[in-house]
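Supplementary Methods S3. Input chains for the assembly prediction are listed below.
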Amino acid sequence: MSKRAKLPVWADVALIPLINVSLAFLAAGVVVALIGENPLAAVEVLVRGAFGYDEGVGYTLYYTTNFIFTGLAVAVAFHAGLFNIGGEGQAYIGGLGVGLVCLALDHLMPWWMLLPIAIGAGMLFGAAWAFIPGYLQAYRGSHVVITTIMFNFIASALMVYLLVNVLIKPGQMAPETRDIAEGASLPLMHELFAQFGIKITQTPLNLSIFVALIAAFLVWVLIWRTRWGYAIRMIGHNESAAVYSGINPKKMVVVAMAISGSLAGLVAINEVMGAQGRIVLDFVAGSGFTGIAVALMGRNHPVGIILASLLFGALFQGGAELAFEFSTITRDLVVVIQGLVILFCGALAYMMRAPLERLFGLVGARANKSEEAR
Amino acid sequence: MDIWVQLISALDSTLRLATPLILCAMAGLFSERSGIVDIGLEGKMLAGAFAAAATTAVTGSVWLGLLTAMAVSIAMALLHGFACITHRGDQVVSGLAINILAAGLSVVLGIAWFKRGGQTPSLSGDERFRPIELPFADALSDLPLIGPIYTDLISGHNLLVYLAFLAVPVTYIIVYKTRFGLRLRAVGENPQAVDTAGISVAWLRYRAVIMAGLFCGLAGAYLSIALGAGFVRDMSAGKGYIALAALIFGKWRPVTAMFACLLFGFLEALATRLQGVDLPLVGQIEVQFMQALPYVLTVILLAGFIGRAIAPKAIGVPYSKDRA
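Predicted C-alpha cells for the full assembly:
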C-alpha cells in the first residue's frame, strides 16, 4: 500500500482534464467502432469537415460563437457554486429582447448604432430570465437547478405562443418574425471580407464572434479582477467565510445568476441579429446545454472555454459532414460526445485523482529511497 | 350527457398520459429519498424506450423488450451511481450527462441498426402490450354512472398502466413499512447516522438508484411498446422532467406524487381537447399556456407560495466518511 501524494499543480490543472477529455473521446471511439465504422476515419472526416476548407471554418466559428456565450454563462454561475441549466431558456428569451429591439428600430438606424442597444436588450432579457430563479434560490429557498429546468420549458412555451400568435409575419405559415431590415442586421463575415477585396464563401459567421471574444475577456476581468468577481468566487468556495468577510451571499447569488443569464442572452446577437436575421422557432438548438459541456471542459476559465467552444464548434460542423461520408453515422454522434464529455469531465472528474495520487506517491517514495541510498 | 362522455374520455387519456409520469416519479422518489438527485429520469426512460422497441422489433417478444428496457435503464442508473456514489461526482452534472447520452445514443444506435432515421420498425399486434378488458366490463357497461366509469375508464388499458398504479402502493409500503425503507429515508436525511449504525451508505444508495432504473425502464417500455408502436427520436419529450416536477409537487411522497402526476396528465389531456374551444368567461385557452402550467405550478410551489416542498436534507451532497 503506497502512500498518496499531493498532486502537483500542473497535474491538477492540465493532466487530469486532459485524461478526462481523452477518456470521453476514447468512449466515443468505442461507440463508433460498435456501429461498425472506423473511428480514425471518422476523426479524419470530422477534422476535414471542420477545418479543411473555408466554408467549413466559417460554420465552425459560427457554432463556436454560440458556445462561447453559453459556456461563459455556465462558468460564471459555477464560480458562485450555482449550476445554471437554464442557458437554453435564457438565450431564447434573450432572443426576444434582441428581436424586439431590432424589429422596432431597424428602419431608423444602421447596424453599428443598433448593435449596442441590441446587446443591452439581449443581456437584459436573458438576465431577467435568470434573475427569477436566482432570486427564488436566494430568498425563497427553491433550488436553482430545478427552477432553471422549469424555466427552460416555460420559455419555450412562451416563445412558441409569441411567435405563433403575436410576432409572426402576417400572411405566412412558418412561425417566424419578419426579416430585420437590410443594413440593420449584423454583417456576415463574407460581406465584411468583400469590402477589403477578399472573397470567402458565405456562411452564417458574423461579427458577433468578436462580441464573444470581448465577452470572454470581460468575464476574465470580472471574475479575477473585480470586487464582484471576488465575492462570486468566495460564495462559491466557502459561503460562511464570505459572510464573515462582509459579503451578502444572497445578493451575490442573484447577481451571479443575472450575469450568467445576460451572457446566455447574447447568443441571440449571433443568431437573431446575425445568422438568421429574424426570430425563428427554437433558434438556440441546444447551445445552452452544450455550454455546460464547454464550461466543464474549459474548467470555467475564459481561455479554456474559448478552446472548448472551438472544439465543440468543430464537432458540430464536422459532425454534419459525417452523414455524407458514412451511411450509419449522423451528427447525433456529436450529442453522444457531448454527453460523454459532461460525464467524464464533470460527473467523473474525480475518478482519476486517487489513482494518480497513488502513482505520484509511488514515484515520490522511489525518489526518496534512492536519495537515502546515496 | 355529452359533457359526461367528454369527461370520461378526458379522464381516460389522463390515465394513459399520467402512467409514464407516475412510474418516473416513483423512480425519482427512491433515488431522491436516498439523497441522490435524479434529473436523469428523462434519459433513463428514453434509453428504456429505445431498448424495449429495438428488442421487441428484433425478437417479437414484448416481455424480452420489457426486460431489456429495465436492464438498460438500470445500467444507466448504475452509471449515475458509479459517478455520484463511488466517485462523489456532482449529481446534477451526472444526471444531465445521462440525459444527453441517452438522447444521442438512442438515435445513433437506432440509425446504425435499423437505418430508418432513428426510428425503430413499427410494431403491431402482439409486439405491443394490448388493452386488457377487465372481467364483467361488457356486462356492466349498461349500468348508469358505474358502467361508463368501469368499462370506459378503468377497464381497457394495457398491463403497464395498471402496473404504474400498482407501483404507488408498492412504493409506499417499501418506503414507509419496511426496514429498507426506513434506512432509505434515514440515509437521505442523515447519512452520518446511518453510517454510525454500521449500515453501508453506498450500498443503500446503490439499491435506491437501481430501483429508480427499474421504474424508469418500465416507463420507457410503456412509451415505445405499449402507448406507442415503436421508438421515435426524443419520444420522452420532457416527460422525465415533468415527473420530476410532479415528485417535487407531491413533496417526495408516493401518493401525493401520484396525484400530482394525475393533475399534470389531466392538464395535458385538456390541452389537446381545449384547442380552439371557446370557454365561458375566459375565452380560448392557449395550448402553450396549458403546457407551461405544470412547470409554473412547480416553481410557485417550490418558492413556498402554495404550501412548502422540503427536500430530503442530505439530497445532492456526496457522502464521505471523513466529513472533509
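Chain B touches chain A through 49 residues (CB under 8 Å). Residues 275 and 287 of chain B are 6 Å apart (CA to CA).
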